[in-house]
Each structure stands twice: as C-alpha cells, then as structure tokens.
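User: Quick sanity check before I run a bigger batch. Here is a single chain. Can you write out its predicted 3D structure?
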Amino acid sequence: MAKKINLNDYLGHSMDCTCGKEHKTNLKIVDIDKDAVSRLPKHIEALGYKKPFLVADVNTWAAAGALAAEKLDVAGISYKKYIFNEKELIPDERTLGSLMMAFSRDCDVIVAVGSGTLNDLCKFSSFQLGLDYMVFATAPSMDGFVSIGAALITNYVKTTYQAHVPLAVIGDTDILAAAPMEMITAGLGDILGKYTCLLDWKMAHIITGEYYCSHIADMVKEAVEIVVEESTRIKDRNPDAVKAVTEALVLSGIAMSFVGNSRPASGSEHHLSHYWEMKFQAEGKKPILHGIKVGIGMIAVTKMYETLENEQFDFASLKERSFDYAAWEKKVKDCYQDAAPGIIALEEKAQKNNLDKRNKRLAILEKKWPEILRTIKESLPSSAEMEKLLASLGAPINPAQIGVSSELVEDAVILAKEVRDRFTLLQVLWDTGLLDEYAKMIAAYFGEKANC
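Assistant: Done. Predicted structure follows.
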C-alpha cells in the first residue's frame, strides 16, 4: 500500500488551518495494532487512572472483555464491570438508565468494550458523570469511536447529543479481524458513505454558505481511498486491511471533533439509515448494523446524484411552487408515528421547508449550477463501482436484502431530510421539486435489481 493513515499526526497538538479555525482533539492515545490488549493496562496507568469501569454486552465480553479483564488482573489494576444481558442493545432511555444505575462511584474512568451502541452509551454517560472514557474496540463497524456526539434514541427519535471524545482508543487487530464479517463490512460501508457526505457538505457550502474546511475534507477522503485500496484483502480478514478500516473510522471521528459536529462524516446517506432504523425500532424488528444501512444509503444517494447531473431546470417556475404544509404534516404523522412530534418541532425551529428560504437557495442554485455540476463529477465514484466493491465482500447492496421494502425506500427519500437540520442532496431535491420523483425512481431502481 502506497499510503498509510498516521493518526499520531493529529494527536497532542492544535492545528491552525487555512480555513481560519484552530483544530484539535482531546484524544490522546490510539493503539490499533497486534497484541494491543496486552498494552491496555499500560495505557490506563499512563493516563493516570486507578479503577476503570468496564462496560460490555454478552457478545463483546466474550470477544474481548474477559481477556481485557484478565490483563488488568495480571497488572494488579482493580476494576468494576457491567455486562448488558441483551444481545441487541437499543440506545434508549431505559438502556442508558440501567447503565447509570449500575455505575460504581469509586471508579475514575469508563471503558467501553465494544463499538457502536456501547460506545454511544459510555460516551454520553461518562459525559453526564463528569468522567473521562476510553474505548477498547471489538469490531471496526462504525465511525463514532471519537466523534463528539452520542447517537441515542429518545422519544422514539434518533438524536445526536453533545458529549465528548474518548481519551484513548485501543484496538487489538487480531480481535478486530475476528469480528463477524458483517461488522467489518459495516465499517467499510460507513467509510464509503464519506463519498456522499463530503459532497453534501461541499454542496451546503456552495448553496448556503455553511462552514467548510477543505483540509478536513481532504484528510477524510484520503483515508477512504486508502481503505478502498485495501478492500480486496478485507474478505481474507487480513489484519493490516482491518487495521486500515479501523484507523479510517477513527480518523473520521477526529474530523468530526475538529469541526465540532458530524458534518465531515454524515450526510444524506446517514439520514436514510436513521429513518430505516427508526422504522425498524417502531415495528419491533431486529436492528440492522448502522454501516450496512449507510452503505446502501450511499449507493442510493450516488445514484440520485448521477441522475441530478442530467436535469434542466426552469428556476422561475420552481420559485412559484407552493408547499402544502398540512399534507406534509399528515405524511410525517403517518410515517414517523410516535416520533412525529419531535420531527414537527424540529421543522418549526429549522424552517427547512420555508418558501422564502427555499427561493433564496434556488437563486444561488441557478447562479452556481455549472460549479455544482463540476463538483458532483469530481467527487463521486460511480454507483456501479460502489455496488461491485461491496458485493465482492458479501455486503448487502440492495434494501431488500436487509428487509427494507420499496415503500420504505420511497418514504425514506421523501422524509429522511426531516431527521436533521442539515442541508444535503435531499434538500436540493425538495427545493427543485424532484423529491417525490426521485423517491419513486430510486425505489424502482432497487426493485428491478432485486428481481434480477
């Protein structure tokens, strides 16, 4: 591999950037390598902690927690532990409450043994308790290890809460490479989602003037390209390839901490994923790994961007289009159900669908359309290329493969933008009157593929 990710370049110092901002992260230690579990006690002591509180579930305890505890015992480090009995954790109020109730107040640091949900729960609970936390990663399945936000479900709505980053991320490559393959490909899907999210970010900068840092965008894109280069070795569980995926996921989190939110790592592909996740939870269905959904969302968004390149707009007519708020509200209530009040409250605050604001965006879109077309062409690989890459590793590439119906695909394209106050391709499609048409188009595209 020509290039490698060097995470130490970003640790332990602030960086004055050409964007005019100072970037820094509180992350102090990243150890993703062979036999890292043996170095866990050394890292805990180096950070000055005396008694860690280990948090795992039954899966991650078996995969790594018991071994980590053994290393702490040998090193003479006292600890407490809490192991969730559930195999499928939901990061809601009940789960968070059970963790907070189990916490032992004589512990001075929380160690998340796992990834995904466990990381979010430990991130938020440690923040609320005023404690630091560390991550002992068991699978390279998502990019939230060192993001500043904790993704939780409250009042049935997937919401990102402000929290803090861990002081250390430890990942033993032998343990990471032994993770279920779907978790490894989920991490890959989350990384590939950066193609579309970075384009969404640049589009928001062009159209709305939102803050954008080309240095951060470039560092994330370079990490994505390194992972793509290593992708052929992932299916063989090559430790170096899995290390590259994990480090790219961590770097993505560093980028989020540099910006102060998830913008460099989460766009419309994530919003589709969030919508499907909320619907699955509401219907009592088994959750699908975040990165798996993001990978499919990335394919959908890439396909929609490819279609957008061929559009011709009558901007004067677009500015005359009305908005049926009552119909929108009914659709939100029908589809979001218990989560609808939160979605409606967000729109009342954000005014994403305000016609005056829409027309201002359309004026900029008209003026900068040639620049936007160039940006799309320069930013994305083809949807066919991404499908081929994921399929070669056995990862799902069609919503039907994970139990998402054509109707749910269509509804997600129409409604997923309401999950966040964030400008993405989905808002562009709403502004230009194409959202419903593209929802039907992408649902039909996946439907035809599923029947092949």
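The first helix runs from residue 40 to 46.

User: Great, the batch can go ahead then.
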